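Continuing the series of single-chain predictions for the mutant panel. This is the parent chain; the variants come on the following pages.
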Amino acid sequence: MRLSEFWELADDVFGAASSRSLARDLALDRLESRTVAEALEDGVPARDVWHAWCAQMDVPVAQRDGGDRTRMVPPAR
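Parent structure:
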């Protein structure tokens, strides 16, 4: 998953106004309490960050594509 795809999904799922704020402030349990931004900066693959973020926010797997069923979201590892 490219970072541009990651941020498009974030805007679609969490809202354009909230996604960047959440990325800076929300500590993810699955990623050693790093924020989304920290995990990406540390080189954690975007797909792993995406699924950890969605899990933390209780986003169902069926909705992790942002409502676009044609969008290919890599499965969680």
